[in-house]
């Protein structure tokens, strides 16, 4: 449902009819138009659309698909933005999700502001939808302390945000029943299908037994590699001994730790986990690491 209203009193909301007119279906011609009592008036480009817009839904293979559950086709939002604003106007989407509306606004030369309660959505808009890391963002973690606040106040959002610090790892859509895994990725061009990469996030206090559970999960899922993500750097010798005991994943001449500890503190110090090139979870192409910035 579309609600249509204007901020200014006694002003009709904008409706750019010509921008969204649909072709005449009745064989209307300029000649017939002028004979129909409209002499002297230019024939419109088409007729005013009905209040139902028919458009194909986004299919599972659509190029623009970002994996966001409520994603809509850009063409739909382009119609709405074109119908109700002019170039240079400011479009606000206060529930911007994966940013279809702001993408449409940007393509149509409108200025825009997007708001979402989910830092994951904001990431998606900035790094995947618009692929522009100069876009100013407010309200997402900028250091370990702000990440800690998110881990306390919104633990599931924190998990999603934390796993997506590793380009190539996509967070689980399920909040519970994830079998001890918060994010998954795939080694690019891994042979024999042995390329699964798992990530698990621990927002609270580090515990050795949970790390051991994760090592079992790596084993159970026959994963190539696993990254155990904590907020602060883990200094425990026992923890390091557990992960190094897991061995290595060999790819060509290179080998990578099969299990590793990595922290949000490392992330803010620009230290990445040691991983082979990963496939982009949404396109399957090799992941461009520079797409993701904090
Ligand atoms: C249906 S999606 C929005 C789709 C979006 N308008 C587009 O053009 O693609 C709804 C979004 O609202 C966000 N949301 C829910 N509650 C919110 C709140 N209180 N403040 C801001 N965003 C919120 C959700 O995280 C979700 O991403």
**Can you list the strand order of the major beta sheet?**
3-4-5-6-9
Number of DSSP-assigned strands: 9
CATH topology of the largest domain: the name is Trna Endonuclease, Chain: A, domain 1
Low confidence ranges:
290-294
For the terminal residues, how far apart are their CA atoms? 35 Å
Task: Tell me the domain tally.
Answer: 3
Overall shape: it is: elongated
Task: Let me know the largest β-sheet.
Answer: 5 strands, mixed
Describe this structure in words.
- The structure is a single chain.
- 30% of the residues lie in helices and 14% in strands.
- It has 294 residues and is an alpha/beta fold.
- The protein folds into 3 domains: 1-54, no CATH class; 65-140, 3-Layer(aba) Sandwich (Rossmann fold), CATH 3.40.50; 144-291, 3-Layer(aba) Sandwich (Trna Endonuclease, Chain: A, domain 1), CATH 3.40.1350.
- The strands form 3 sheets. The chain has a 5-stranded mixed beta sheet, with helices on both faces. It has a two-stranded parallel sheet with strand order 1-2.
- Strand 7 and strand 8 form a beta hairpin.
- It binds S-adenosylmethionine.
- S-adenosylmethionine binds next to helix 4.
């Amino acid at each position: 449902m579309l609600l249509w209203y204007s901020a200014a009193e006694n002003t009709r909301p904008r409706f750019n009819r010509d921008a969204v007119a649909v072709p005449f279906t009745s064989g209307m011609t300029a000649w017939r138009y002028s004979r129909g009592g409209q002499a002297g008036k230019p024939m419109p480009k088409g007729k005013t659309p009905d209040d139902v817009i028919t458009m194909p839904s986004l299919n599972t293979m659509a190029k623009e698909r970002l994996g966001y559950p409520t994603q809509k086709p850009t063409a739909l939002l382009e119609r709405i933005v074109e119908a109700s604003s002019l170039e240079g106007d400011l479009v606000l989407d206060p529930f911007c999700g994966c940013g279809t509306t702001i993408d449409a606004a940007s393509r149509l030369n409108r200025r825009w502001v997007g708001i979402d309660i989910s830092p994951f959505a904001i990431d998606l808009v900035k790094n995947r939808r618009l692929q522009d890391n100069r876009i100013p963002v407010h309200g997402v973690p900028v250091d370990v302390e702000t990440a800690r606040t998110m881990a306390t106040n919104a633990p599931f959002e924190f998990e999603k945000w934390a796993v997506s610090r590793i380009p190539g790892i996509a967070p689980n859509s399920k909040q519970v029943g994830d079998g001890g895994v918060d994010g998954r990725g795939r080694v690019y061009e891994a042979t024999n299908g042995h390329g699964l990469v798992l990530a698990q996030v621990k927002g609270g206090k580090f515990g050795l037994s949970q790390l051991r559970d994760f090592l079992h999960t790596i084993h159970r899922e026959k994963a190539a590699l696993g990254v155990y993500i904590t907020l602060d750097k883990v200094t425990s010798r026992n923890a390091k001994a557990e992960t190094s005991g897991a061995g290595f994943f060999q790819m060509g001449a290179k080998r990578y730790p099969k299990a590793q500890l990595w922290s949000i503190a490392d992330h803010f110090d620009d230290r990445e986990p040691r991983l082979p090139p990963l496939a982009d979870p949404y396109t399957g192409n090799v992941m461009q690491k520079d797409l993701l910035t904090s």
